[in-house]
Amino acid sequence: YEVSLIILILNYFILIESMSMKDFFVWQNSYYMAMMFLPFFSIWFVSCIAELNRTPFDFAEAESELVSGFNTEYSSGLFSMIFMAEYGFIFFICILNSYMFMGSSFIYIKSMILLYLVLWFRGTYPRYRYDKFMMTAWKVFLPIGLFMLIDSM
Question: Among candidates 128, 124, 105, which has minimal Cα distance to 50?
Answer without folding.
Answer: 128
